[in-house]
Structure formats: structure tokens, C-alpha cells
Queue: 2 jobs
Job 1
Amino acid sequence: MNIFRLAGDMTHLASVLVLLLKIHTIKSCAGISLKTQELYAVVFATRYLDIFTDFISLYNTIMKLIFLGSSFSIVWYIRQHKIVRRSYDKDQDTFRYVFIVLPCIFLALIINEKFTFKEVMWTFSLYLEAVAILPQLVLLQRTRNIDNLTGQYVFLLGAYRALYILNWIYRYFTEPHYIHWIPWISGIVQTLLYGDFFYYYFHSWKNNKRLQLPA
């Protein structure tokens, strides 16, 4: 564990807490993509298949449980909560899963470190996480005006991945033989997808204006 890894984990956790705060207190999921949340639920479900078989540390297990529980809770809120679900904009959240999931399955089957069920699922989760934010970004571009909590949620998600890249760089120079191309490339792709959002996020913050993405 190093400072970049810890900061990345805490930023990721903060993004989830911000989203839960919005949904639970305001009773609204306006501007939130259910498709992205469902993709994240799949990411954690396929990545943490070893949660009850391979113990790494108490910290690791707790974080896995938090992300699994929170991701499925968010999906339940948007789909089932009698008040929250009314604010979900289904007509705007139309990104098709097939354009994301099928390529990730294909890549996981042909490009992996070991061809076993757990390893393929873990690799699939990395590829899927890299692009799971796409439905959310498309939705924000369509709705354009973004409330403060939604903007903070997306920003924290992007910051978490950027911090993880710093964590990998740090480990590359401090740990012998630390080379993992699949998570590195997936993480870089994921961070690049946030580039346009980051630009407009900082622009709105600098000028003290409401965050708005171009159509």
C-alpha cells in the first residue's frame, strides 16, 4: 500500500458516497445513467469472485464488500425505489450495452494473462470498467446542465483512476518485475475518456459557473 493507492481508493469511495448521498437525501437520480451503474455492478461482481476464497487483507475484503454492496444498492434505488425511479430519464439513457459488453468479452477471451474462468472474468472486468462510464458521459452531453453532486461524482471517478495510474508508476519504480500491461492499458483508456469532462469541469470551477457539456 502506498499513498497513491490509498488516495485512489478513498477517492473511489468518495465518489460512491456522493452518489448515494444524492440518491438517498434528495431522492433523485436525475442525470445518473442506470446503464453505467449496472455495468459497474457487473464489473465488481466479475472482479471479486474470489472474495470468499482468497483472503488478502481485512482492508481488501472490506473494500470489496463496500463496492459490491453499494453498486447493487444504487441499481436497486434507480430501478425499484418508488420515488427515486421517477427521476430516472430513460429516454435519454439509451446507450446500448452490446457496444460495450460484447467487445469486452471478446478481448477477455483472447487477451488475458491465464486462460482460467476467474482470470478471464477478472480481465473482462478491467476492460468493462475502462468503458463503463460511456453511457454516463453520453447522458451528460445530452442533458447538458449538470447538477453539482452529479458533476462531483463523475469527477471523483475520473480522479480515482488517474491516482491509480500514479500508483502503478510508483510501484513500477519501487517494486521489481512489476509489469501488468492489461490493467495499465485499460486504466489509461479509462482516464482518457474523462479528458473532455475534466476540461469543462475545471473551466466551470474556474469561472464559478454551472457545469455544462457541449452537445
Job 2
Amino acid sequence: MSKPLSALTRIAAGLGLAAALAATPAAATELTFFYPVAVGGPVTKIIDDMAAAFEKDNPGIRVKPVYSGSYQDTITKVVTAVKGGDAPHVSVLLSTDMYTLIDEDAVVPFDDLVKTAEERAWMTSFYPGFMQNSQTGGKTWGIPFQRSTVVMYWNKELFTQAGLDPERPPQNWNELIEYGKKLTKRDAAGNVTTWGVQVPSSGFPYWLFQTFTTQNGIELMNAAGNETYFDKPEVVEALQYWVDLSRKHGIHPPGVVEWGTTPKDFFERKAAIIYTTTGNLTNIRANAGFDFGVAMLPAGKRLGSPTGGGNFHVFKRSTPEEREAALKFVRWMTTPQRAAEWSIATGYVAVSPAAWETDTMKKYVADFPAPTVARDQLEYAVAELSTHENQRVTKALNDGLQAALNGTKTPEQAMRDAQREAERILRAYR
């Protein structure tokens, strides 16, 4: 039979119980994380693994990734959720959705979340080129994560067969036409079996078009996101050049070219040169059964590409604890080491100079230097098209581009109509 506890023993036991209760972790802070799956590859597994690793490092926080379709699907779902009072805590969305998220009063600027000097230094650690679509009105609304530029991929075997130097891609617009003519192949019946050049015009037509306008020395919008310049002569000239690749020179597929099938056409040797995102680099490296090259886009009046891709955003309808957890998650995901690992796994550009200084990245590019192309092209990059009512404005431009590529409108008429519609949409913001 046990002896009764002395008063001292009872007090000690009570203190032990209190200590045990104090050591019991509080209920975990749960974060809903909307993530767009828009580029090929096992991206969802990578995100799941990163979320699990974050939870291991941060036992008091749980992250629930929600795979929300394309970028367009995701912004639609996010805006609907915001209006219904059920917004996620954090999401990766196109950097160009910044004005839409601000206009919907959906997100909180990171300036309101950071508290320490270390956190403020982190906010300034990213490439300036990526911050052009992340900041407005003196505040930082997005943190770069899966960012990109458009680059050129070429099939070195097809270059050799065409009598071209496989190590020297076209350097300018004239050479792109010259090379394209040598690379385009036709069968005995005159049907094209390999196109010299392929630039996709579905999915993100405006983004690929911005490569040509940037190289022709003009930007499509102002920094305030309330003016567009679609009908400027330099813009019309850029569109005429794209149209002429097919209609005049016969080196580019006619009509609208699918975004999603362009890498596959490259793998199957149906296209010798393609323009696509750096986010396809790992996919192309894994699936191209031939030696390929990656280079900056050919210059017009200048070199250039728009930046692209997604930023982290933190949403307003959340508790202080949830915002603090969301900031911790975004910081964790964008550390130099993880930015390097993410870049290697996906092909996106590592978003900070410090990521390129990690041993992991140095070793990777020593064996495979292609990722440095997009990084170096940032020197010539401009902000991706982003305005208030961005979905509607880009649709007006996309419709015009596809009308010109399909031949139902001249480039001049297509851009004039797109500008008229954009002005109507943006009038309220001026």
C-alpha cells in the first residue's frame, strides 16, 4: 500500500504537472498555401517536400499546400475566396497580379510584417529586376520566388545538319531569320517537318510579345499601371516582325502556337529554335534526347526580355499569429540555399545574388552553365506587363496579338483596337 504524499511531495508533483503542461505545445498555427501548377515537371512533390521540411524546422506551424491550377485559375480562386471571406494565408501568384491584389484590398505589404533589421535586409536581398513587379507606391507587395525570363533554346544537332555553328546561336533579328531559313525542313510534298523558329502565342501571348517590344526599345505600360502604349509605332513594328516570321519568311508555324506543346515540339525535333521560360530548363534537360543550347534572346535595337513568374503574397484576412507564421514561411522558402535548390529542381532563376554564391549552385553551374543565361539577361530585363484590371487589359492585348497572328487583322489595326480597349478599362484609374 502506497504511503500518502507529504505536503512537500504534493507541491513538487503539482509543479511537475505545471511544468509538463507548460511544455505542451500550443495548438499549431495552420497556413493555407495556394500554389499554381503551370509548368511541367514534378513540382507538386517538390512543394510538398519543402512544406514538410519547413514544418520540421518550425514545429508550431502547419502548412497546407492547395494546388490551384494555372496562374489564371489561381488568381480567380483567390479573388473569389477573398470576397467570400475565405482567403488563403499565403499564395504564389503572378507578380503581375500585384495591382489586382491591391485593388481588391486582399494583401498586406511586407513592410507591415517585417520588424527586425535582419528582416528588412532580407526584403532588399533580391535582384532589382525582379522587384519591378513586386513594389509600387513605396511598398513591397510581393517577394520573388519562382521567377523567370524568356530565353532561347536551340537544337545543336539540327544546327550542325544545317551547316550552322552549333555553338553560336543567332545574335540579332536578322540572323534569326537567316538561321530560321536554313533550319526549316520540308518533305517531298512541301510540308514542313521542322520549323526554324517557334514562339508560343497561347497561354501568355503578351509575355512572349514583350520580348519583341523590349528588343525594339519600347515598354508596354507605365510604372503606375494606368497607361498602356499598345498602338505606338515601335509596338506595331515588333508585332509585324513576329507575324513576318511566318507569313513572309515561312520559318515559323502559322497561326496561334500552343504554349504547352512547344517544349514537346522541341523534343520531337519539330522546332529547331524555341522561345520559352527558363522555368522549362529542367524539363528540357530531362527530356531532350540531343545536345541543346540556351542563350539570351536575339537583339533588335537592344537585348532584352520581360521578367516573369510568381511572387509570394500574404493575405490580409488573417490573425497576427498567422501573418507572423506566413512571413516565417516565405523567409524560409527564399533563403539562399533553398532558392538555389529550387532553381536547380525547376529551372527558375535563383532570385537573389546570395543564392548564386552557395556551394550548391556553384557546383551545379560548373557542370551545367545554362542557368546563368537567365540571370545574366536580368541586366537587360524590363517589368512584365502589369496594370490595374490586369486580366482584362492583358486579354485585350492577347486578343489583338492572336488576331494579327491568325491574319484576321493587320498588326496596326490589332494594336489600335487593343489600345482603345485598354484605355477604356484604365480610364477610371487615371
